[in-house]
Amino acid sequence: MKILTGKCICVFLLLAALAFCPGCALTETGERYHSAIQTFRQGQTYFSIMHLNSIIREDPQSRYAPSAMFALGEYYFDHEDYFNSIMTLSRYVRSYPKDKGVVFAKLIIYKIINEIKKEDEVGEQEAALIKEIRKELFSQPLFLIFYDRKFPRWYKSIFDHSYLVYDYVDKIKVFRDEKIFLALSP
After folding, report:
1. What is the pTM of this model?
2. CA spacing 20 to 30 A to 1: which of 17, 97, 147, 183?
């Protein structure tokens, strides 16, 4: 009987672990998602964006697709490509309306529209979304939007941006990375 080498033993142990834990193995989409995070943290943003785009294009129903699409919209916002940010985030809102980052995507769109005034550059669907956001934000007391169980009061994106909501008697303040991002009053 041959003695197994160290490499063979490692391969055998890995295969045995995967056999006993089938849910532990990453899918191809999962590997792309983790590669996107890793390349971003290594400063290779271009490759990270490529991975995120491939997730959205090739597996839009995966559990990673909503986070990937939000991150792309956020990336465009950070790089002042407001048109693509609005397009990507509005597609995210339409495609994944129950995702935990939807309210924050709407707030980014709202901030772009109110502060940058690019409404004339958006299409009909985006203009309808902007009207919906304004109606949603101001048709009820603002604190109810963030106390409703379907919306979180915080969100952390895969590009390590954190969003947090504080409500006061007369306004809501949204913080991004511990800096004021948006203040809303009824």
Report:
1. 0.71
2. 17
